[in-house]
Predict the structure.
Amino acid sequence: MTRNPSLVKNPDLDNWLAFTLDGRVRVQIGKVDIGQKISTAVLRIAADELDLEPGRIQIMHPDTIDGPDEGMTSGSNSIEEAGNAVRLAAATARMRLLTLAAAKLGVELDDLEVTDGTVCARATNRSISYWELMGGKRFDCPIELNVRSKTASKMLIIGQHTPARDIKNIVTGAHAFVHDMMVDGMLHGRPIRPPHIHARLKDLDGTTVRAVRRDGIEVVSDGSFLAVAGTDEFAVIKAAQRLATAATWDASQNLDAHDIYQQLITNRRVSLPVVNGTPKDGPLPRVTTLPEDAKATHSATFEKPYIMHGSIGPSAAMAISKNGDLEIWTHSQGIYLLRAALAEAFSIPVERLRIHHRPGAGCYGHNGADDAAVDAAIVARALPDRPVLLKWTREDEHAWEPYGPAMVLQLSGTVDKNGTICAWSHETYSDTHVMRPRPGVPGLGPSRLMPVKFLANPAMEIDPEPNRAHHGGIHRNLEPLYRIEEPRLVKHLVRDLPLRTSALRTLGAYANVFALECFLDELAELAEEDPIDLRRRHLDDPRAWACIEAVAHRIGNLDKAPQDCGRGLGFAQYKNTKAYAAVAVELMVDQTSRVHLHRAILAGDAGQVVDPVGLKAQLEGGFIQAASWTLYEEVAFDPNGITSRNWESYPIIGFDNIPEIETILLDRPGAPFLGAGEAVCGPTGAAIVNAVRRATGVSARRLPLTPDNLRRAALG
Amino acid sequence: MPEYMLTVNGQTRRVDCGPDTPLIHVLRNNLGLKGTKLGCGLEQCGACAVLVDGEARLTCVTSASNFEDREIVTIEGLARNGTVSRVQQAFIDEAAAQCGYCTPGMIIAITALLDWTPRPTRAQILDALTGHLCRCGSHARILAATQRLVRED
């Protein structure tokens, strides 16, 4: 396995595990649980490795004071990073404990067995518990990277299903979200936003401000930042609405609402060739000369609009400022990065800031969480010693979260006379997918905290640099997994686009895979090749083919769908190195051009399965969310601002279009654990669009597949 | 502030709140029942549903003053003596929640459905869940949990 950044940064065993005197084990990780049940998976890994009943293990909330800094919870990396770190930490602990026990009991290591934390010498039947061995002390040693951990066949808990650790609290209403915090003297807060990101406060009617204050509501203003706070939540909501009417905004610079797909291909940009999944400097590769006797040559352009994370619970955070110390409770996915950026924004030492993670509604990437924490912090600093629980409204979340970027994908390809893909070009145009408050040049972190842009002393604007990581942002899954000689791959980081964007589940992979897998089907059809066989002949990895074969077998012959229906398929290995997923769907397009999903078959290979039900739920959730993007979602805006401001103006999938879903897990005992929250999204988009093409004969290359877009595509 | 008498989870409680304060804020802030979730404040997402005289009702717009003399049951009121209700158990058995923010509203909707219609058709199930949004994509599991109860009935 490649080096695990979580272990490189946090090598001390005591940072991860503690045997507390109450006969329990505290496990501290730096990845946050956002509904993907990482804490359940980690708990199972630790229990298995230590031979403990899972009930003895507590997974703590991540916090910037205790426990390991694991950076960002993103990219489907948690099970690989936190999961493997805890596995090695637990294996190291176990080895140390067994060594101590062997000495105490006077036997060899091999004579010991462990049952729920009690180490027993087989020959003498004498025993001693982990906690007696530890005596409340620390390990004071690093995690051993080469420690012998359990082999797959010895694992008793991994691979079996037990209910997720938080599910009982979720169903009884006891699961505490940050929104549910309640402490003495607490104020409720609400921000008041301008019409859009470029608008600045021109005037605030003093009479209204005084009237609001007379009602016992605090008004916090700093430059163009406005918020209210008070003890009665509904009074605060009404005060925010009232104050919004008292503000006049200078909106001389509006949003550029011209055709976004034109802007994407004509605006200034940074263009980089991508080789083996990694952007390089240097000239863009030439277009390949095509053989004269090629069976088919094809080119097509695919388009994906801005989409939103759309958390069901608008973002929220609690903050208190006391004696210059700032303490924040947030559902941010990166509490350490947020702390660094906030400390820089407020010019306070990082040690004076403590950030705790608390659950929020599912976020699927960089949503409003961090910005709501900044809002709460600004209000708390203005009202010291008073805890402030600040919440965004539905409208705030819809209009102010950083969106998943709009993208244009231009593909061309050729199949030679032997049925081999002999030329391939894929160029992707997009804004950045990576605007989290990561450290970098001075001012970079603060510039990515939205509320800081509105302060009297605002953050400067800094253009993002192109992400050069392997399968990073725009170019995630740009490189086909298929064996194609010297594919021509280009990423274009486009500047001056109208909306603020950042990380949304899969980054560029959803659109790249959607385009690639649809294009492949179109190319196969032109070349009169079977699309599944064309894939098989261009895949070297048997695990990849196993996924495709599994869904192809279950969905049935692609060309023999029931009347008025279509079947389609899509596949990808996430980042070409992580989990594999294939999706096949059967759907119907009705007379009004509405798409009805009937069946879906998902196949996933995420290495060794830690929790089969948790893994299935992740794959299904990814499928349903991506189906929603594909069929319904597009952030609408005009020069005066975002017009998708609630669930009516930004519809998402509902119960009326959920197909029958069959999920196949391809378990690989002994293979590394892989995250699966994102793998299925790109294949889902492709499977749906490919099925619509087979059902209607229409290649719908602009998402979402609304009746309007489908009719437009039918007209060519 | 005016006072209202609300019967919630079998107990009648006096609450002080403005005449226009939506029920959800009273449940959460005055009565400390945080299980009911505010999702949109626009009656568009279903997260704030509670049982009112046995029917699922949204609480994010209608003021608390409209609920006097009604029997309100929130998600906290479904379990009996620490034993979860059969709908809650079905959600556990089907792993029908990821982040859990929409879950209380979903459980309330299904509880009301099955109380009135023990053997609902698929169309009736879909109808009961219309207007309940889930972003994690637990829909298929929520439907499976409901169908499990119909089968068991």
Q: What stands out?
A: The two ends of chain A are 49 Å apart (CA to CA). Chain A touches chain B through 60 residues (CB under 8 Å). The mean pLDDT of chain A is 95.
